[in-house]
Design brief:
about 600 residues; five-stranded mixed sheet; alpha+beta; Nucleotidyltransferase, domain 5; DHBP synthase
């Protein structure tokens, strides 16, 4: 059946992806299903879900691709251990993790989706990243780069992709890592949780890079287009760092050494007040990362002479840096798939096996991110009936009052979008739940909360009342693809909300709720071809307001993005959203403040 199952297991953001004849069929992160952020164990539920979605069993799968290879770079590991002599506990921890990766067949069959008959392939972590970028891209030939914390003893890899092949150019090995550098300073700034780096990226726009000169002592750029990090500022290479990948939310112990405190001043206690120094450290961190990132890209362009670029790895989620590629490098085309972080290696591992190892031609291009679970209308009705037992079979577009709620059903998409757009324009906060969920960490119009970007107060309202998160955190605009150049200084489409561009000065006062303090915005371009219902909603909003933009944030409240209709309804009920639109059904709170 030409089915390949890809998995990212025993690493942060574990996930599963299914390829059918080289085409992406289904993919989902484990956290969406078990509700534990960044789950780092085996993706049992995700494996079961992608097989269910494909209507197949484990026995139908031709091959399983795992985005880890414990045998990769073995000599480098041995030499490092000989020179550095890591602690016995660190060695035990790594061996235990590698043994789990090695016993993947038993883990798969424990899912209960049949007996595995196909071969299991181990794909080196960064090759899986590269594959997830290039083999999803529209490019026949491209320069490719990964940057992250670590995976299989590497933190960065560059390559040239041509047709169905990737040819590696260079690598950066442990202990040098831009990802570890970013995480260490993130911890110093009082954000200790796995995945908190994006918070510091947002905080950076509030400061000035006053500490950039100091951080140039930490990261050294080399003439060969690479970088080195000074180990005196870190603990991971000398004392070792506690890391938990056994199952549950990942944990990484303190990465920075006392010397980084000497350089930047006292570390901030988590939850304490942020001040100007913290803003400036965040700004300096971002500036130093961008210097190293652009340095590596300029070298890659000189080495390859290519105009198209594919990016992957956790650091490829740094949308601020990504937005400067066109301005600061000669690359003219960029592709970053929506799950560029570790979850995406499940897809990349499967693609690497299909193309690189099996020699199959490329036919798939990722043009949208809607590859996750979908639920039928009957499930939506069941969820609504659990909260509203007297729910009518079909209340029609005019609806019916049921206690504090009003329930309606629009079978006409135009009227559904027009009514929802009107509500948004009048200041309502709308939960928008449609079709298949998004692949990757961003809500891109199917599991979104949508509000009016013209209302500056919406940023504070959402952070305080709905998201319950830090007040400095920004929100993103979804814009009709054809209107991008009217509002942004860059018109290059980005359906995956993974690049930040300057908003045109004359438009910043028009959409203040999605304009960052530095005048930029992390845009999502919305195509009528790829998401017609979300496009129609924004088009209807433009018809009412003259603005082809809505504010889009993930449908959740300090939890993974909602997956099921029940989770969407529960989030709506416990927050102060005004309206929930699930498929054709609308539940509103008339008169809600």
């Amino acid at each position: 059946m030409n089915l390949i199952l890809g998995i990212n297991a025993f690493h942060g953001d574990s996930a599963a992806a299914l390829l059918r004849g080289g085409h992406f069929s289904a993919g989902v992160e484990e956290e969406r299903l078990n509700r534990v952020k960044h789950w780092a164990g085996f993706p049992s539920a995700a494996v079961a879900e992608v097989l269910r979605s494909g209507g197949v069993s484990l026995g139908d799968v031709s091959a399983v691709a795992v985005s880890r290879d414990p045998s990769a770079h073995l000599m480098e590991k041995v030499l490092f251990a000989f020179r550095r002599r890591p602690s016995l506990e660190a060695i035990r921890s790594r061996l235990a993790n590698q043994l789990k990766v090695a016993s993947i067949e038993g883990q798969l069959e424990a899912v209960g989706a049949g007996r595995l008959k196909g071969q299991v392939y181990s794909v080196e972590h960064h090759l899986a990243h590269l594959a997830s970028a290039f083999f999803c891209s529209p490019f026949e030939e491209a320069a490719c780069l990964t940057i992250d914390g670590f995976g299989d003893f590497l933190s960065s890899m560059s390559a040239v992709g041509r047709g169905g092949k990737l040819d590696v150019l260079d690598t950066v090995a442990f202990p040098h890592s831009l990802g570890i550098f970013y995480t260490a300073v993130t911890q110093h700034l009082g954000f200790p949780k796995y995945g908190d780096e994006y918070k510091v990226m947002g905080l950076a726009s509030y400061g000035r890079p006053r500490y950039l000169a100091e951080l140039r002592n930490v990261v050294h750029l080399t003439e060969d287009g690479s970088f080195e990090t000074d180990m005196e500022y870190f603990l991971h290479a000398t004392e070792g760092v506690t890391m938990s990948w056994e199952g549950g939310e990942p944990f990484i112990g303190t990465l920075f050494s006392p010397k980084l405190v000497e350089l930047l001043g006292p570390a901030r206690e988590a939850g304490s007040e942020l001040n100007e120094r913290h803003h400036d450290i965040a700004s300096s961190l971002q500036a130093m990362y961008e210097e190293a990132f652009i340095h590596r890209l300029r070298w890659l362009h000189r080495r390859t002479g290519l105009k198209a670029l594919c990016l992957a790895g956790g650091c490829a989620m740094n949308s601020v840096a990504n937005g400067k590629v066109f301005r600061d490098t000669p690359f003219t085309d960029v592709f970053i798939q929506s799950a560029a972080g570790d979850a995406g290696t499940s897809l990349g591992a499967a693609q690497y096996v299909w193309h690189q190892l099996m020699g199959k031609p490329r036919e798939f291009v990722m043009r949208h991110s809607y590859w996750g679970p979908e639920f039928p209308e009957t499930r939506v009705v069941e969820a609504l009936r659990s909260a509203l037992p007297d729910l009518p079979v079909d209340p029609g577009p005019w609806g019916q009052r049921m206690g504090e709620f009003h329930v309606a059903r629009h079978v006409d998409e135009a009227s559904l979008c027009a009514e929802t757009a009107r509500a948004i324009s009048e200041g309502e906060i709308v939960g928008w739940y449609q079709g298949r969920s998004e692949w990757g960490p961003r809500a891109l119009g199917n599991r979104s909360i949508v509000v009016d970007p013209r209302r500056a107060e919406m940023k504070e309202v959402l952070n305080a009342r709905i998201k319950r998160r830090e007040p400095f955190r920004p929100f993103a605009p979804s814009i009709l693809e054809e209107a991008t150049g009217e509002y942004f200084e860059e018109s290059y489409p980005d359906p995956f909300m993974i690049k930040v561009y300057p908003i045109r000065p004359e438009k910043r006062s028009v959409i203040p709720a999605v304009t960052h303090v530095d005048g930029t915005g992390r845009l999502q371009t919305v195509s009528k071809a790829q998401n017609p219902r979300y496009w129609s909603l924004i088009k209807a909003f433009e018809g009412i307001t003259g603005v082809p933009v809505v504010l889009n944030t993930s449908f959740n409240e300090n939890e993974p993005i909602v997956n099921t209709p029940e989770e969407a309804l529960a989030c709506f009920l416990r927050t102060k959203m005004h309206r929930l639109v699930m498929g054709d059904w609308v539940v509103s709170r008339p008169g809600a403040a």
